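Example record

Each entry pairs one chain with its bound ligand, glutamine.
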Amino acid sequence: APVIGVLALQGDVREHVAALAGAGADARPVRRAEELDAVDGLVIPGGESTTISKLADIFELRDPIDKRIAGGMPVYGSCAGMIMLAGEVLDGRPDQRGFAGIEMTVRRNAFGRQVDSFEAPVRVAGIEGEPFHAVFIRAPWVERVGDGVEVLGTVTEGPAAGRVVAVRQGNLLATSFHPELTGDRRLHAYFVELVRAAA
Ligand code: GLN
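Structure tokens for the complex follow.
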């Protein structure tokens, strides 16, 4: 099974480890550079991007993660993890910094102007079956994508209809919502396949 780490600085690490294990990965938390060396792919969990950014520096994981991304390691970020994979962040803290990630602009806490948390059906391109029951918690949305970025999912109903909430650029995958908080393992299975293909 592919070895997939979950960046374990802050956020819903356990939920992602369980979801990855349920999707057939050998899943483990990653807190140190040596642990990062041992994984084939990485998940950046939901949580608080400003905190994850700060701790990435303190734990000296920023450069190692940037290098692995440059080397083609697959990474999946959900919510705060999406923000950490964005080339540009609107409404971020001035000192927060993402990894060398996806060519996109995200707006932090974007839905929060309407409502803090909500749920909506979202279809993700390349994933068969029912739309995801997407859970959004002070979530970002994607305002701009570069040429190399594929839009995989948008909100289709309600006040946020049309907002981009799932994207992929090469081996980098990001969602505004939290599939790890539902029993639906299709997104994690999709990522496990991506890691398998890249290995
Ligand atoms: N608002 C958080 C941030 O800016 C993200 C929220 C989440 O991950 N559920 O990082």
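The mean pLDDT is 96.
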